[in-house]
């Protein structure tokens, strides 16, 4: 009942564009429930680095400090004395660890493949917008044979500013040739939700990891648990 109340209160204040011109998807935690793999990778590598006196970080620390954020910002916060070269080496090592751990083991969020098919039937534009490194993004999309499905793939590290800055979503809208106000952003993290809301899109929070309160506070106008619920919210449920 609490989830429904949050969703109804949010949507009453802001309605999604109907029909939207484009859907802009985050990848980690939004197309896939990948946060548990990232958590395991960070737990392992941070123990190796001696962070927190060698005690594994817990899920609460991961959600508050790491999830959805750009690696260089994470390193800045937890290793403030490191120089850029050391931060980059750490990030490369961690992301290789993530790819090794996730290979063949990431399942799409429920209803995603059918939702993608409905987007194709409706002729909507689509982009993937992520703070993940390009190798990670391509590896995850290849896992469901959807790398070439997207009209654009925007990587935060390749923009002047990554999420939570709105630039990656603005870059995506420009690449698709659509107005950002006519886009729906699908996000699972407060960082990404803030970016989408600041850009001016209608932001839907995917409840794969974060709490409804955290996503609503970050700017989500609606909350869903899977792509079946998203299809119903946007009136994009498969036609029978």
Give a written overview of the molecule.
It is a single chain. With 240 residues, the chain is an alpha/beta fold. The protein has 11 helices and 6 strands. Helix 2 crosses helix 5 and helix 4 packs across helix 5. The protein is globular and about 50 Å long.
The portion of residues assigned to helices is: 40-55%
In whole angstroms, how far apart are the ends? 29 Å
User: Tally the helices: what do you get?
Assistant: 11
| Strand numbers in spatial order across the main sheet | 3-2-1-4-5-6
Query: Major beta sheet, specifics?
Result: 6 strands, parallel
In brief:
This protein has 11 helices and 6 strands. The chain is α/β, with parallel strands linked by helices and 240 residues long. The protein has a 6-stranded parallel beta sheet with strand order 3-2-1-4-5-6, with helices on both faces.
